[in-house]
Amino acid sequence: MATKLTNIQNLVRFSFESLSSFDAGFKPTSTDITELDPMTQEEGLGGVGHILDKPGAISKLQEKIDQLPENLIQAVNDSTVQIGAILKHLGADLQTSQYEVLSWLERTSDPDMLSLAATLGGENGHLQVPVMNIFRNSVLVEKTPFAHTLTTLLGEFALLYFDSEDKEQPTLNLFEFSRDGWGSLDELKHQIEIEDELSEAQKLFPIESKIVVSLSWTIAALVSFVDECIFVAEHTPYEDRRRGNRFVLSYGRDTRSIQPFECDSMQKVIKLIQAALANDEITACDLMWMASGIARRPEIHLEKKSFKRPEIQYDVFLSHRGSDSKAELISHLLNNDSNEAPAGVFLDCLCMPRRVINRKFVFENLACSNCISIIDSDNYYSSEWCRKEKWFADQLVKLGHWRVESTDLNSFLKIKLPENQNSEPRVLRVRRVFVLEELIDNQSDPNRSPNLNSLSSNSANFKLERELKTLGEKLDRGGFFRGGHTFEKIFQWLGKPLLHEAADNDFDATVERWCVVCQFLMMFFAKRYVTVATESLVWRSVDKVESVIRHILEGGIAEVNLFIENTGSYLSLLSAVAVFELWYENPGELYGDFIEDEISPLIGTKAIIHNRCVLLDVREKQYRDFNLRIAAVLISNGLAGFGILQNASDPVHNRVVDGRDISVLPCLTMHPGMEFFLS
User: Fold this and answer.
1) What gap in Å lies between CA 375 and CA 603, rounded to an integer?
2) What is the C-alpha separation between 242 and 414, in angstroms, rounded?
3) How far apart are CA 272 and CA 398, in angstroms?
4) Within 13 Å, how many C-alpha atoms sit on residue 390's CB side?
5) Helix, strand, or coil here: 627?
6) What are the residue ranges of helices labelled H in 305-442?
7) pLDDT tens figures, 480-520
8) DSSP state, 499?
9) Which of 52, 150, 228, 354 is most enclosed, with most CB atoms within 10 A?
């Protein structure tokens, strides 16, 4: 194994050297190959092979590939061969059959989905191939180690290309890569999937796990220097959305959200990988998110438009041992007239994470700080986390754009900090909110369920239906509610048993009724939203809410008296989490104050709103275990606008709840002396 690791280190070193011919500030070209430009639906549904059958496509593509440095192509090929060899060594069967696909559907899907797959059994016909590939890809993801890591960094259908029978070695051709997964590193669902699989894998084969992460990021770095026209796979059909037994297939690069990386930052990523391979304490999970923190994202391409997500930059990152220093640091930082932390200072509990797992949150913000201040204390180096922060900080210094300073707590507390100059929120522009207007417009859409139309057609709770219709009529078309009447109305009917008056034993009717209530709560919670959510994002969020409600009911959580007695509060909590997630999903905007004073009464004592983050309160034993179960359901269904609040004397953050590891969640831990912090 030592020899194998040495070979990988040499390969990573060779990969870095292969990029030495590129000048600083290099940006890849964006050549337009006419033969590969937007296709008709009939032309576009045949996959990469069908695209390359177009006259002149192969010659044009080969011409562009020939212009690349030979050692860059060699480094990519060598890295993919090594990944393929590891997968083969670990027993990953990358061959799939129609029988396996149908068996998988029997285990995971409903009869309608199985029937749909049965009609797609052949290999002839344009519509059969892409949909069957979606099924085949799901099978491969289920049985392949590192599947989520590989598909995120190498492309959604990377496993299918590894699966090709005509290749002597499992590998990827350069044109089979896609950058469509890079942007999903900002989505909690994908972060959790990667964290879970790497955590499990590194228990069984830690060296292989670290190698796969190292080579995947190395390949991503190498292909960042490539003309984007070479990524033919970005033209192929993909599953844009799935709901029940319905697929939405999109095709062509202009329908995807493509997230490139800045070339200069990717050279730093490869240097970091070289150092990490020589440090046994840095795990595959650590390296995954350290590299993500260094990789800079210049812009996002979405539907022929480009925008840049603002990157948070801190002047100082405070690396500390919480039990030794946190209470004193908070008191010192908040000791100013505005009672807010000075701008540019990062302390984890003052900069609550949103839609990010803990490991990524820490390492990414450390990489986005100009200076890392080590608060040296008695127990600092006894903490594995602190040691990793210190190692990462030292590596950033070696990369040339960061500095590290070490001080004891007493010395730091004597430093006079600047006053916060940004206490007033900046609002770039106020625009109408899709959540408010379009959800209302779709409440009578017969093609969209659940909504008011489906409630009525199913003879559900008419009293609730009337209340919701009245609520909808109170919305003005500028995106704001009129006065405070609507808030009082919501509070009034959520405090009554309207949610339980009809169809108490009807599962689907209960799901539908609760989901519609959540849609209107989302509209209410978004009344001072100052951004625009796309239609796709909004409906995906609504679908997640429905999925959570179904999960709660199917899992028996709703039978717990706490939920029955507090349904309104928990639906309010669920809706607030969904809205916070939408808030984060919309890059390029800054926001005004969120309506915390109006959300909090509806949520009650189940959670608090802190720094625009919903925190499930698990300090009181009465709600602790139940709220952790709710947290497990939320993250299992991809809702991410929340965290948990716990006491240091009763830490529950590392629990496994209903099979879900809660430690991936952002967490605010209350140490002794921090009581004033939330008052």
Assistant:
1) 37
2) 56
3) 9
4) 17
5) helix
6) 322-333, 358-367, 384-398, 409-413, 434-441
7) 444 445 556 666 666 554 555 544 567 777 788 788 888 87
8) G
9) 150
